[in-house]
Write a structure and sequence with these properties.
The structure is a homotetramer. Chain A has 15 helices and ten strands. By secondary structure, chain A is of the alpha+beta class. The longest helix of chain A is centred in the last third of the chain and has 39 residues. Chain A is globular and about 70 Å long. The mean pLDDT of chain A is 96. Chains in contact: A-B, A-C, A-D, B-C, B-D, C-D. Chains A and B meet through helix 3, helix 4, strand 1, strand 2 and helix 5 of A and helix 3, helix 4, strand 1, strand 2 and helix 5 of B. Strand 1 of chain C pairs antiparallel with strand 1 of chain D.
């Protein structure tokens, strides 16, 4: 019986193909099977150049090929960061027309203004297991136990990793549930895996020491891939802030508008509009830039959810405006995950941040700062465009009157 | 002077390459330039099979190539939807190891249980321009004017589009800012462009009729690509709910755990943990599935931010559990955006939803329901896995005791 | 056996005293009993002048007396509302020193500026029962049933009340839970009781018609006495907006500061600070004014939670600033609840809004607008004070430099 | 010219009356003036027994009298707290009929179950001034400066108070704004005044040391009197958790319902309903109890906004249910504010927590725990009542079938 027939009658599972075939053949056969089952012609999905061996082991089960996501560049953008310093070309993987052109204009304005100020404010990846206790008294005593055994837990956590360092433990109670939020310095890795493994070890110690039952290694107070106030307040991943001062002259020349108009767009849209909408995002389109940079650079695309939490501010100053973006929870890394896939790694290389930095952690921090500057470019450009239209309309209205 | 030299000395802009070269050459030259500038070797980014002509016009400026994102399949999953009915193989583009295997197990459980119940609750893409007024009295009168001119505004909006229908207008005031949220039936398109164009037309009418100043076509009460309560409450894009009943026997057989344990994980993690974290996401990892399906299917990846807003519920029933996911704001389409790129379109074809449906709108609604079912599979699988470990530990602890 | 002994040995319950004694004696005996049990001397609690007969039936069980909350006045404040027009003295019941003085200064500034612009944007009290269904399909069909039976439900709802009118029904699904949010015009009553009785009637019809199980008459999507985005977005109670234009000259004279400083305080504190804190309150201290007015005027003090949800905005204008407050969910009434207690009713009379208005509803709407203006006075005053200190410090720093 | 005439013609300001008259006369004359101005008869407001001398200095400007708020008692409730231990009668000041009866039933159930478990999880009052900086680099360096000068700032802060201790400093950046959140152990005081004075001193040091401009002593990251995630996550005031285990037998006897029904009400209403509403309050009616206890006990009523933030949980256990309430930010004190007014102080005495505790802080912590238990009683009772109706209806429906 052919393999396709065995797949069809269920005697061979789709995910078992790699057991009998080389990865490349397994992918091909699986694709053929799916094509037959669905009647879809799957030509292009099968065309790829990346090294499949590692991908099927690490990144993707039941693989049938790849999707090709267009990558363009914006830049150069001058960055005056604590870690990233110099001029950068930003790789953006996107299908949204006009996005790269917009970021490009923001890069140009920033560079003309002397570069983006960027700082990493905090750095720490988190995992927060949840435990069940018998009573609020038990819950309270678990918190105390954790505090008292801090050093022991730190030692245990760090025994599971050659790179990671435990940098904080915080406890939270909700009724009989106890959430213990561990924070790690994960160096150049985004670090979720490292942190999860370490948390598992520590969680077992806590359960054994307190009689609390471990319910889940993630109790949603991490918080991973969901918008959450805790990430904004305590930070998660790389916390980055980026800003730039624009003079009246530059605003007029590059954006064809003025300081007051940009300020008003930010005020009524990003601040008041977001407040009125019950939004956790006080920005124009940070998600566009974060998602595009994440996909290009082999980051976990689902991390764009927490990564794009952003407050955009526009201060009126004596010489013009100071525009800034605050990104408290960018989960990024330059090793592990999708960063090793060839096309994605080329994007990291293009930024000079592929692989481990010297010392460890510097590449990921650079990447965090670069993405912060990229978001600034995107915000600036869209605010400028909206303000210019708004100004144009105002003139038009005056002309009419 | 060579083109590369002209790029280098700034006499030719990077985005002007398409004016002098064919798209394919422009991409190649641009990539070479970036490679030289950054010292990075960009081999794989330049290998692609998609039709570039359209992509450079519609999807991506300053293109240098593509990233290849691995695509695997999970399934088949049986879906009993209002629009999607039958068995589906789900294409997921991801670099997160174990994700597809996890979704696959969820699909298997759902299919064994007879399929996922899915319903589209609401369908409407929105845009909310913001206007500045002189006073709260003026603001209030703008709202009244909009209400009184509803039919006129609807006619104007629909004059800009051959497909879209205006289905609702809501006004919001915050001080002197007025937000007018337009909702459209955009048929098979995700529809942001259509809606923006229509909103621009209507916004001009409102400005002219009321003397309010249009500040921005998006006032962040749309709300696009930011987590926002308004999307949950009023719906945005395709609002989908999916659920499945699992018997005690099935839970035990597929997940090696029991109803109570799955219920407890959901309760302490997804509900209480999220509440305690100040999170807008009451789910385990909806974002993983939404992002992977969006990238595979040519959706706007930044829309995973709003698209992944999800409440996961687990009801204890007499026969086992009923697990459900509620996704109030999935912005998806099967025409436009990245849906026409060959690899992405093949993923849509694999689902039987590429292009316009008959009647228009049915393909996008199907896609919304399929993604709803896929999220259900992902949630179910992760909850089951967490519960099984939790149960295993409980047994172990008892064994020790 | 004496009554106190019977209370002591449990043969008489504390709440049964009114069965054997007149209200005034029951209160006295109960207070004596509590004094003996706790060893506390309860002299002043027993001194009151209000009519106890009604209070023990309607407002307070197990009564032992009253607390005396100091009441002061701020004003007069000129109000140019849709309902409230003229000059008002605001009664504020508070123990927070400096609050009334602060509001008073705000009233003075507003009056000097020609009065507060105020408008009622929406008016409707809500109740949202929650139903359990068997599946998401059942849930979806319950929503459809409700939509189809709108007129029948409206008739049933209105049969339970002589005043209330059903003005809206909205359905929400979360998994198998269905929330049906009823909105009523409750005229001069705050209306929770009226609305709850009407909702009970309609909820039974829905349960009978659809087979859904009614779980609770309030499913927390009302949302009553909790901060909730839904109230901001859909409105609840009286939705009010109030604003005032202040000239540079007035700002300087009354507040000893300037437009830019007030604007900056609002920007960095009320907008950006609140966003950064994950707050639902974008204001300085609206709660102070709302709570003080509510307690003075016999409103339900717990309603200050939803009532104080407020966005404060400061626009820079050519002539100075325009300051506004937006209060989307003020649950207030002038009949029922504590409004009939003599001291509280005197406060309502002082505002000219005691009892039913002509036509019904106008008194409560006036009260809503007055509270809106009072909040504006409080915000303005605190912003002005903060800005003045800030300006003073700035001058001091310059002086030093 | 009479005083009334001078008030009328503006030559004497209403707030100047105390300069010419004794407090008691000033209040009377002011009330007469207001009565004449408004045409309202203000008889009862003028009847009070509290000591006016202190009130007019500390609690209330422009006083015209008091409102009498009915006070009833619920209890006794047995409390097994870390600080409060024993049986308590709860004083509740309210005008909402049925509230005290409901809390009373909850107290009875709790006491029958052996008492409420209560623990104080955290204790610290906060103030967070906001500073403006020139750039994000400046902002970042201000944070570093604060960290480096921790001891110096602590010394300065504590020099302003004889009781308070600085227990924490946290810095937050949003663009160019820096928020420095100071936390203090304020012993038996609620502590806002103490903390504000200390923060002012420290804020001046920070401004002088860094060149940052102090914009406002409260930057809304405190967060005071607004619902805010930061208070839940970091705690503010007294963080309290209270719980109780109820057996099946007790549930049946006291509440005429069963464990499953109570659990279902909490699940669909307090957890899922609140999530769906975008609410920050995951409880049934905590605000009712917090507001009523606050008003009775001389707490700042506007603090009910932050104080009532509460998550109510119901765990299914082998023997019945465990119900708990988590209140992360109860701002309460037993000295200062309105606690010294006679009627309010009698309520504190009734609880045995008036004035300073031995050692300092214990009275306020007791009060925090007592309010936690009171909220538990209120939640339990309402959940029980809803569940009983729900069960009754279920039986009825079965009967019909």
């Amino acid at each position: 019986m052919t393999i396709l027939n065995r797949l069809r009658d269920g005697s061979l599972k789709l995910y078992e193909l790699e057991k009998e075939l080389s990865p490349i053949d397994a992918i091909r056969v699986r694709r053929e099977f799916i094509a037959q089952e669905t009647g879809a012609v799957l030509e292009n999905i099968g065309i790829f150049s990346i090294d499949i061996e590692r991908v099927v082991r690490r990144n993707c089960e039941n693989m049938i090929g790849t999707v090709q996501v267009p990558v363009g560049v914006a830049g150069p953008i001058r960055i005056n960061g604590g870690h990233a310093q110099g001029s950068y070309w930003l790789p953006l993987a996107t299908t949204e027309g006009a996005l790269i052109a917009s970021v490009n204009r923001g890069c140009s304005a920033i560079t003309k203004a002397g570069g983006a100020d960027v700082r990493l404010l905090h750095d720490g990846m988190t995992r927060a297991p949840v435990f069940a206790t018998d009573s609020v008294i038990h819950a309270s005593s678990v918190c105390n136990w954790v505090t008292e055994h801090h050093d022991e837990l730190k030692t245990a956590a760090e025994s599971t990793t050659s790179h990671g360092k435990l940098t904080g433990i915080a406890t939270f109670v909700a009724g009989t549930s106890v959430y213990v939020r561990f924070e790690f310095d994960t160096k150049d890795a985004m670090g979720m895996n490292m942190v999860t493994i370490a948390s598992a070890k520590v969680a077992d110690l806590i359960a054994a020491g307190t009689g609390a039952r471990l319910i889940a290694l993630s109790g949603n107070m991490c918080t991973d891939k969901k918008p959450a106030a805790i990430n904004g307040i305590m930070g998660r991943g790389r916390s980055v802030v980026a800003g730039v001062a624009l003079t009246h002259e530059l605003i007029s020349r590059v954006f064809k508008t003025d300081a007051t108009s940009i300020h008003e767009v930010n005020y009524r849209k990003n601040l008041v509009g977001s407040a009125r909408a019950g939004s956790m995002g006080f920005n124009a389109h940070a998600a566009n830039v974060v998602a595009a940079m994440f996909i290009a650079c082999g980051q976990d695309a689902a991390h764009a959810i927490d990564g794009s939490t952003c407050i955009t501010t526009v201060d009126l100053t004596e010489t013009g405006i100071y525009v800034a973006v605050t990104l408290p929870s960018l989960p990024v890394g330059t090793v592990g995950g999708g960063t090793g896939i060839e096309t994605q790694q080329e994007c990291l290389k293009l930024l000079g941040v592929a692989g481990s930095g010297t010392p460890p952690g510097t590449n990921a921090r650079k990447l965090g700062e670069i993405i912060g500057a990229a978001v600034l470019a995107g915000e600036l450009s869209l605010l400028g465009a909206l303000a210019a239209q708004h100004l144009a309309r105002a003139h038009q209205q005056l002309g009419r009157g």
